[in-house]
Amino acid sequence: MDRTRELALLLKVGTTRRQAARMLRAETVTATTISMLIGTAISLVTLVAFSTGMTGSSMPHVPPHTYLTVVAAVATLALAATAISARFTLRGAGK
After folding, report:
1. Would you state the pLDDT for residue 35?
2. What is the pTM of this model?
3. Would you state the pLDDT for residue 94?
4. DSSP class of residue 2?
5. CA-angle at 16, arms to 12 and 19, nearest 5°
6. What sign has the CA pseudo-torsion 95, 8, 10, 18?
7. Those residues with Cβ within 8 angstroms of residue 60's Cβ, 6 or more apart along the chain or in another chain
8. How far, in Å, CA of 4 to CA of 14, rounded?
9. Contact (Cβ atoms closer than 8 angstroms) between residue 94 and residue 20
């Protein structure tokens, strides 16, 4: 909602609502991907240290389906939050 002025300006210079929504989705996907990569790297540092201390092996066990479920849930929530707020913002920005 803080970007209403920015989106209103984009609409006034010729951007369609569909293009603005696509831009917001692309930003969300980019931010979510970077966040998940950084979060995975930070988690691995912690998990490797913990695994080494507990089992002597530096390879932590993380079930792939659990990891993918978390990633899918995060991506779904991020895209849903963006879609809902973009819809209201674009509706208000066009006036």
Report:
1. 95
2. 0.78
3. 60
4. T
5. 125
6. negative
7. 44, 47, 48, 50, 51
8. 16
9. no
Per-residue confidence of the chain (95 residues) as pLDDT tens digits? 678 888 888 889 998 989 999 999 999 999 999 999 999 999 999 999 988 888 888 888 889 999 999 999 999 999 999 999 888 888 876 65
Within 10 angstroms of residue 40's Cβ, the number of other Cβ atoms is 14
Amino acid (one-letter) located at 21: A
Helices marked H in 1-95: 4-12, 17-55, 64-93
Q: Tokens standing for 88?
A: 């209201």
Angstrom CA distances, 88 to 32, 53, 54, 81, stand at 21, 50, 50, 11
Contacts of 93 (CB under 8 A, 6+ apart): 4, 5, 7, 8, 11
